[in-house]
UniProtKB/TrEMBL annotation:
Identification of the protein by name: DUF2267 domain-containing protein
InterPro entries assigned to the protein according to its UniProt record, in alphabetical order: DUF2267, DUF2267_sf
UniProt superkingdom: Bacteria
Stored Pfam families: DUF2267 (PF10025)
């Protein structure tokens, strides 16, 4: 992944401007380097854009420091000069963006050196899913749940029944019903414009909001599910859908 793409995803997930995102990224990577072994930090750096490797530099034989998540967040906040809530969001955003960037094996290697409480940051519950869709779509707060369901229902029609079920299993339980389809069902060849028309009709919104909401739900699904699962979803969508992302 290129540096600008990495930073764009990180900044969007944290909800900060580009200049603040750079400070937070470096602070979080430096803290992560302290929490994993020097050898693992070297392996991680090799899979990141060159611009992000410097904060990870440590001697290869350096042992990992055994500190908990609260201490991790405290160090990030101290280095970046931000409060605890923003430092925690940055920590989660980094782990999610690393999930987008690293090979599955390298991600497993990094996560295996972290306690379970860190891994919980990679899980997104229903409230967090809705918050991200709201922030990304700029939908009316009292309509965001209805609009999200409309997008998921339309997505389910575009996917095979088996793929819709796999997606549902990785999402928060409250979001599974709109994706329910018989396992043997075939995906309907819906193009982007028809997809947006269906979302707009089902949610009772205009096409512009339907477009923003579709993008928001797809991006938030990317945050919530495994990279392999997301790639399977994208493989069944029209190529023009990539333009939304």
């Amino acid at each position: 992944m290129k540096y600008d793409v990495f930073m764009q995803r990180f900044a969007e997930r944290v909800g900060v401007a580009a200049d603040k995102a750079e400070v937070l990224t470096r602070a979080t990577l430096q803290t992560l380097a302290e929490r994993i072994t020097g050898g693992e930090a070297e392996d991680l750096a090799e899979q990141l854009p060159p611009e992000l490797r410097e904060p990870l530099q440590r001697p290869g034989n350096t042992a990992a420091e055994a500190f908990d998540l609260d201490e991790f967040v405290r160090r990030v906040g101290e280095r970046a000069g931000v409060d605890e809530e923003l430092a925690r969001r940055a920590t989660r955003a980094l782990l999610l963006t690393l999930r987008d960037t690293l090979t599955p094996q390298e991600l497993d290697d990094v996560v295996s050196q972290l306690p379970e409480e860190y891994r919980e940051l990679l899980r997104i519950d229903y409230d967090e899913f809705m918050r991200r869709v709201l922030n990304r779509s700029k939908a009316p707060p009292d309509r965001v749940e209805e609009i999200t369901r409309a997008v998921l229902q339309t997505l389910a029609e575009r996917l095979s029944g088996g793929e819709a079920r796999n997606l549902a299993e990785e999402l928060p339980e409250q979001l599974r019903e709109p994706l329910a389809r018989p396992p043997e069902a075939h995906g309907r060849p819906i193009g982007l414009e028809e997809f947006l028309d269906l979302v707009a009709e089902r949610a009772g919104v205009d096409e512009e909001l339907a477009r923003r909401a579709t993008r928001a739900v797809l991006l938030t699904a990317r945050d919530a599910i495994s990279r392999k699962g997301y790639e399977h979803v994208l493989a069944q969508l029209p190529r023009e859908m990539a333009g939304l992302l």
